[in-house]
Amino acid sequence: MSKLIKRVFKFLFLHPGLVLFLLLGPPLIWMAGFYLAPLGTLLVNSFFHLDGFTGKIVHTFSLETYVQLLEPANRQIVLRTVLMAVSVTLADSILAFPLAYYMARFTSKRMKTFLYVAITLPLWSSYLVKVYAWRLILAKEGIITWVANVLHLTGVLDWFLKIPIIGGPSLSLSEIGIFLAFTYVWLPYMILPIQTALERVPRSLIEASGDLGANGSVTFLKVILPLSIPGLVAGSIFTFSLTLGDFIVPLSLGNSSFFIGQAVYSHQGTSGNIPLAAAFTMIPIVIMIIYLLFAKRLGAFDAL
Amino acid sequence: MDDKPAIIFNNVCRFFGEIKAVDHVDLEVHNGEFFSMLGPSGSGKTTCLRLIAGFDHPTSGKIELYGQDVSTLPPYERDVNTVFQDYALFPHMTVGENIAYGPMVRKVPKKEREKMADEMLELVRLPGLAGRKPSQLSGGQRQRVALARALINQPRVLLLDEPLGALDLKLRQQMQIELKSLQERVGITFIYVTHDQEEALTMSDRMAVFNQGKVEQIGSPEEVYEHPNTTFVAGFVGVSNLLKGAAAKQITGSDKAFSIRPEKINLVKSNTRVNDNMHFVDGHIKDVIYLGLYTRYIVEINGGDELVVVEQNRSSNSPENSTGRGDYVRLMWKIDHINKLDE
Which of A271, B36, B121, B283 has the highest Cβ tally under 10 A? Predict the structure, then answer.
């Protein structure tokens, strides 16, 4: 028996290509079958269109669906979603950076472990639960309204909710509410990549900058920030694309206006317009591709 | 102003909890000299350098830079620059931008600072590399860029933290000579941290030997090598034979410890006559190690102590060459070549 095992191992040792195939084969087949194929199908479907009279899908190549996508109502959906994704990404990077910096530079080992757990802890519970919790927090009867009442700040809250576009009848039915929930649920995805990037900046670089005459803010702008851009980009890919594709948060918290995710959900479901749903799905993909090319152009990945 | 010492350490301590990294250090670095801080790792030499640079502050005591108390000044307000052990070049900037970082911080116009950077590249003999990224350079080239970047601000004192540690031997020896001549050209005070005693001896005008947070001896390379004050210095700087107690007494007549350098010892036939101005001791050769340039003998003397003797291989048929393992020999040296040591 052991002789057979020896021979098998010797054979594998002499055929490294076979080993590579055995290791990479299953995940590659999985990727191709369940990941790339659906994406391709999606792309193909977006070039079909729905016949307006029969309600049936016409399986010929046309740009009709994309023309449909450019209708004002649909443009509005795309714009609203993209603006939300940008705001959430900005807010998350501003919130995440100081914490990530603290974790990377100043913590003891134990404190760092504690913070890792604290940051990832919310990810252990269902995301639906958290969104519903936000609904309760933000509701008219919720804690924020109550605190505003106690502090006699109801006027401020009302003024805030009266701001057009982002306001609404209550926090839980406004863009502000959606923004708060998104910012909260995606924050861990921003902290961890930035923290990793900052951890890779050697202390000596920061000392060298100070040594050459730069005070803290110059060192931050010229050394720390540029070197943490790969982390910021990685984090923003998460927050940006997750916001672009999400439909649960706007469904639970928003008013009746749609986000891309909701549009996809309703087009492929109730109205059976699979081509338009597919075209909507292409938007986040295209935006992310453009974003990454732009980031690469800026040299975001040079230091990797 | 220039007559003032570049650096004065006045009873400086730096403790990290229980660990006394720098323990009551007093030293003075003269203006314009090449000063080395030599010691094994953990001896406090790098901490002293970081205290001068301002990356760290003393627990107690005072550090003066040209008469100014800088003990608690941040690094960016000190007229010193540092060449880091890992070079610490900014990976996202070109070589030119790295070198021009200091002027950039001082808001020197772009054109002007590019010209300054080119001049610095000329000085460190890397002309035309301004457009490269640090990752495209070899270790030796990075080292020169780090040097140029630190010198562009024309600091009054340049600190070098084992800058040659990562280079191979040939390049290191070449850079030692280049650094020394560069220092003479620019006339800036260099403070050089190293654990390599040969490097310190080669380059320094004066050197301080560190051990366990304390300065053991300060002096010129000749003084430190020829007249080590303590057992530690005698053992750390060069090779020394250390004799104490009974072994010392049988040679000098006193049991006070002393050291003698291997190259000061004459290895002769055991019946050789000894002059009055010489010490001698008899023993037998335990080992002979041929090293090309010279031969090293390990001689066991009466009482069991071992002495190292080196002899240059001047000619292949000298009587020394015929001595071999087990031979009885006499070791003798001039009395004034020994160093009486404080334990």
Answer: B36
